[in-house]
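Moderator note: this is an archived Q&A kept for reference. The question asked for a predicted structure of one protein chain; the sequence and the answer are reproduced below.
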Amino acid sequence: MGGVPDGFERLWTPHRLAYVEGERPDDGPTGCPLCRKAEEGDRESLVVHRGEHCYVVLNLYPYNPGHLMVCPYRHIAWYTDCTESERDEMSALTQDAMRVLRHVSGPQGFNIGMNQGSVGGAGISGHLHQHVVPRWEGDTNFLPIIAQTKAVPQLLDDTWRRVSDAWREDH
């Protein structure tokens, strides 16, 4: 394709175009990817555990291998909209996720949290979810700053297999 090489590497991610163009994938339950994941098979949707009120899924765009999200089945946007049962199960599943990830990959720390609303940084603002991100000493480098690229050293399917197997063994 014509032109003079500019020395930059390209990471082609056409699946992210909807975010760039400002489309919101979560306009109601029918368009919500987290609602769809709750209805699909575990492996194809990357669900590692299903509870009574919530489920745990690998993040499709992980910060690190094992980046999990704890989601209520109900399509709610705000933490304040949780029932007590949903809130309590989200908390318990977050603890379980930490235990499983410690067993599987021995992280030295975690980032845990929720971004509420699109202004608050939520990529899927219409469906509440809590992130559980395992962290290791030296797991960051210059790529995100210089190249706006995150190097993830493990394939999602391999991570799904290891985490879901360990979750079943622990329970």
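Archived answer notes: The two ends are 54 Å apart (CA to CA).
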